[in-house]
Structure formats: C-alpha cells, structure tokens
Amino acid sequence: MAAIAAGDYQGAATALDEAVAAAPDLAPAHELLGGLSLGALDDYERARRHLERSYRLYRGAGDLRGAARCTCTIATMRGSGCSTAG
User: Fold this and answer.
1) For position 65, which CATH number holds?
2) What's the predicted TM-score (pTM) here?
3) Is residue 4, in this structure, part of any structural domain at all?
4) What is the dihedral of CA 9, 13, 16, 20, to 10 degrees?
5) Going residue by residue through the chain (86 aa), what tens digit of pLDDT does each one get?
6) What kind and span of H or E run contains 51?
7) Number of domains, the chain
C-alpha cells in the first residue's frame, strides 16, 4: 500500500476500512488493518476486532498459517498489557 510506504497510516487504515466494507470476508485485509491499528495507530480495540475476524476467516478457509499469525499477534497484545480500556 502506497499510503503505508508514505507513512500515512491513517490514510492506509481508511483504505483498508473501505476494502473490508467492500469484501468483508477478505482475511488478509482484516489482518493488515489489525496490525496497522495495533502497531501504528495504538487502537487496540480495533486491532483486536480485525485480528479476531481475520483469525476466524483463515480458520474457516483452512489456512492454519494465517490463523496462527493472528493468534500470535492477539496473544502478544494480551501479554504486553495492551488494553482496550481507556
């Protein structure tokens, strides 16, 4: 994504929001939006929501590697004290 390369993380998140709205079953878009929300935007609730959605989609498709990536990221959030509360 050009927006990420340019450092426009909010612009990238907006583009990914549009992508998941248009194609809600696109696991990689949810995964990328979750990672971006976590790593660049510090929006832990949004990150958790998209990573969990991506996990379910990957599992449903039989993509265990994708599901494992999401699981590891979610576990890291929990282990590092990332919180969805204020």
Assistant:
1) 1.25.40
2) 0.87
3) no
4) 160
5) 688 888 899 999 999 999 999 999 999 999 999 999 999 999 999 999 999 999 999 999 999 999 999 999 999 887 766 655 43
6) helix 44-61
7) 1
